[in-house]
Amino acid sequence: MKILTLHTDYIKFKPLKKALKNIADLSEKEKKESIVNNALVVLTAVEKGDADVEEIVKKLIENIKDVAEQVKTKNIVLYPYAHLSSDLASPELALEVLEKAEKSLEKMLGFKVTRAPFGYYKELEFKVKGHPLSELSREITINKGEKIKERKYDSKIKSKGKDSYLILTPEGKEFEVNKYKFKDSEENFKMLVEKEAMKKGLSGGKEPKFIKYAKQFQIEWEPMSDKGHMRYGPSGSLMFNLISDYSEKIAKSFEIPVYSVKGTNMFNLKEKAVKEHADLFGDRLYSIEFDDNKFVLRYAACHQQFAMIKNWNISYKNIPFGALEIADSYRFEQAGELLLAFRTRRMDMPDLHIFCRDFDESKEWFIKIHNKIYEEIYRINDDYEILFNFSSKKNYEDNKKWVLSLLKDKKKNALLHFYPEGINYYWTFNIEYMVIDELKRPREIATVQTDVGNAKRFDIRYKDKDNTNKYPIILHTAILGTIGRYIFALLDNIVRKENKGEIPQLPYWLSPTQIRFLPISDKYNEHAIKLAEDFNNRGIRADVDDRIESSSKKIVDSEKEWVPFTVFVGEKEIKENLFVLRTRGKKTLDKVSKEISISNLRKEQGEMPWRDLPFPVLLSKRPVFV
After folding, report:
1. What domain range is 99 assigned to?
2. What's the chain's Rg over C-alpha atoms?
């Protein structure tokens, strides 16, 4: 059984309609909105292994009592929340557990209990208090031949210790987060500190505007799958593939060999290394069971790359090197946290691991990755704020000079986050690179992490000069983030620019149609088609609006699709062999020849990846994408 406890100022919910057909109807009282103040909200998911109802209820009550006494409240809300698990028990069993827990909490312990209706869709609103005990997740399991085992988590890490934070300036000055005086120019950094260190709630309850633009390019949720899974139509698929191509280009731009690999997405938890890695990762794992085996769906490309590379015969002469897979990865994110493209249950990650001889070499490569990450965010005229995580304060103190070298070049403050001491992490430090989105929320896009444990765990070795076997240090890198997060960063950045008066526009290399020819009547269609064919053959995605529409309507539609360049085709253009080129966002028109147009657009493309037009050249031949 999985539970998540939230100490709230209030919770408000109202049942709307049945989510399960065979569930009992509600009374008139139960149909009304419920409000409970100063409540310990217990989100629950009863699982298939919870068949011993008495033992599960007993342990559930013990956990609730433990937390309620610490936060000093007698108000309990039992709230069924199926999204905590992918391995749910039957509705009958789950309801039995909740009913018995409700009675025991009231009669035996004197709590005031409100139980939210089971099997109904509900409106839900609550406000979490934000202190260290206000968000706790716990797992209660029953294994064959033994009593219940229990694992406790807070929202960040399995530990009884406390996290701590400092602000570090490029000059090396350290500040407690509540004593730092933010400059006017540090608004974004202030938002990062308030959210991550001070635990202030996220602002902005409305739907972010980038979602509208994502749908414009057929990027949306797949309603016939599990929550958190996406689909990409023709335009979105082209963007996805181009970003994948670009991520591979970036990975192979370094002066070391980078080996592209492919593999499976599920690994057997009976394998010791897989099990240990899964235990370190935490409790948001997808799993699947068959043939008396339990498999975890990989949450990054680590499993496949490490399982493969442990069989390679590696010499010190071969190191450093990289391994890259654009890996489908799975994390069972909570339904309430899902956000199109940004936070999903299936993600596609250009996962580059760099294998280094020793710790010093890994720090050199960390700096190179750090610089490349900034180079890519600058390319879209955006910037990152830095959350620098350390597995201990000692790791920071031993490497402070190196840490400062990362900040000085970018003239950036960093928020330092120290995990509790005394825990055997597989990593020493990592950076989360955050944009501050349209709704003023920090959002991690890119990351780099130093791994000192998994080479040994997976038995990855190299032969050193002295003929001894050594374990490499591994850098985990996501330079663009996931494909989805890079799309999120692009579109959210466009929204923020639009709020400042700029015209929304994709980068030229990602625009599905790069130039559109607009015949002023159907007698010029043939010439427009020949032009488009020539442009497509020369690496410029061109199409033709051959529909029977007015010229103004064709322009409006090209604007809606963010087509960067349009050209009307009529008798004058054909006779003079000149284009009147209309550039999106510019009021003036440019009169140029075809060859100059092609040359200019090829320069605009530069060295970025290119793929063919993702739909027919003629707009009249396309379906309406909805």
Report:
1. 2-154
2. 28
